Amino acid sequence: MLSQKINDALNTQIKAEFYASYLYLSMSAYCDSIGLTGLAHWMRHQSEEERSHAMKLFEHIQARGGQVVLQSIEKPPADFDSALGVFQQALEHEQSVTRMIHELREQAVKEHDQATEVELQWFVKEQVEEEKTAGDIVARLKMVGDDLTALLMVDGDLGSRE
Ligand code: MG
Predict the structure, then answer these.
(1) Which of 15, 19, 58, 88 has its CA 20 to 30 A from that of 72?
(2) Domain containing residue 11: CATH number
(3) Residue 17 Cα, ligand 1 centroid: separation in angstroms?
(4) Does the predicted model carry a pTM greater than 0.85?
């Protein structure tokens, strides 16, 4: 059985994952609107992945006899200043999600909730990957600078994400 505190924190985390999904979908729309269809494809894929993170936590609450209480999701920004701005913001968002996951895991450790702790270990590893991927793209877009040919190369590359 989940403690009320962990149950509530898991519901808050579900909301954060859905917000990430919403944010990346909005970023995808922006990238598409400026003709960067590869970046748009990548962000759309990322949006789906965040939704699957939310569902993983959703299922954990259910498996543990807790109560899923879905919360309202804020409106994400619709306008961004550049492709680099998009990915910088995505990286910052992932860093804040990482902090939330770590706090949640610390709470599970404190309460000796081993099942939640193990569940969250997956997320701890996943966040390392998410930050690395977003950070690498930020670095590449910084190298691109004002070079449109280079930008289209990065766009083509990200467009090939399966
Ligand atoms: Mg996530």
Answers:
(1) 88
(2) 1.20.1260.10
(3) 5
(4) yes
Averaged pLDDT, 11-18? 98
Six token digits for residue 64: 């543990």
pLDDT digits 0-9 by tens, 78-100? 999 999 999 999 999 999 999 99
- Distance, in Å, from the CA atom of 35 to the CA atom of 156, rounded to the nearest integer, reads 11
If you measure from the C-alpha of residue 12 to the centroid of ligand 1, how many angstroms do you get, rounded to a whole number?
Answer: 13
CB-based neighbours (< 5 A) of ligand 1, an ion: 17, 50, 53
Host domain of residue 71: 4-158
Nearest to 9 by CA among 103, 147, 139: 103
Q: pLDDT tens for residues 26-55?
A: 999 999 999 999 999 999 999 999 999 999
Torsion sign, CA atoms 49, 157, 135, 85: negative
Cβ–Cβ < 8 Å for 17, 51:
yes
Question: How many angstroms does the Cα of residue 13 sit away from the middle of ligand 1?
Answer: 9
Distance 153 CA to ligand 1 centre (A): 27
Q: Which tokens hold the place of 53?
A: 């993170």
How far is the centre of ligand 1, averaged over its atoms, from the C-alpha of 4 (Å)? Answer: 23
